[in-house]
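Worked example 2:
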Amino acid sequence: MSRPQRYTYAESVTLLRDLAEQFPEVEWDREKGRIRSADWSESEGKGWEFRFPWPFPAPQPEDSLQDFAEELDEWPPAFYLILMQAGHAALGYFDGGELMFHKVIKKYMVRRKHGKAQIGHLSARGKSKAGSRIRLANTIQFFEDINGKLEEWAMEDEVERILVYCPVRMWSLWFGSRVAVPFERNDPRLMKVPLDIQRPGLEELERVASVGLCGYLNGQPNR
């Protein structure tokens, strides 16, 4: 199958409206933000799939695909993009597809010769030396700084989506921080970034956002 066709945010809204009208019985994965024809098979080159731009609002349980598509605005809504790896984070608030403000956070959390984060090292070793205590303190501060910045921005009531890249082992530490995450762990606006990322920084934040603001069509719908 050829490479997916890329659509801007506004083009994606128009395309989804057309697809929803032509193919009312498609398979709709609400959590992952995509629709597929019943015969979709990427390996066999059958059918088609359309992946929504990530900032599309989370659908309501009662929404039909047609209603959801019609209610979309062609202008990208406000959203958070939060990228985290051990010791590196990049946070951004976007509105209308533009990065309005951002923050990059760096902490010494990884043993330089071993490349292992303190999160894993303590659970594997148990005892703590001076360097380990420093990394542990930085790990705690890392999540507090992230949540503190989100709390400072106080835009959680404005965003339609909260897009997050966070390794599984860091998720509980993030939500268990003494500085609380300003939204719930089960917030329906939360969506995991379905993309492998490089070390978080401003450039990576902008790159990931540019990917996520577009929709992608695999295959060719035929009526």
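Residues 197 and 208 are 8 Å apart (CA to CA). Residues 130-153 form the longest helix (24 residues).
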